[in-house]
Amino acid sequence: MPLELGDNTATLTGVVTVDEVEELASWLRATAKPRVNLRKCNHLHTGALQAMLRFRPKVSAAPTDAFLAGQVLPLLVGSSGMPTRQGSEPP
To answer: What is the rounded CA–CA span in Å between residue 17 and residue 53?
Structure first.
């Protein structure tokens, strides 16, 4: 399953498609201080990226995928702070 939604953290895994965008956007809208774990994400639909750019969740774990880490992560952490360590969860 590409999207696991917890109380404060969403974990995105593998390929996040258009089918997950509305659920992610609704969760981001309803969560007070959302966090996203991108460590195991290797493809992110542009709609999911747009939702994250709109709601600016904190990135709790950086993606290990080279493209996401190099091109997408800088867009997401621009105003929300850097993730803790690449591939790590906060304590």
So the answer is: 16
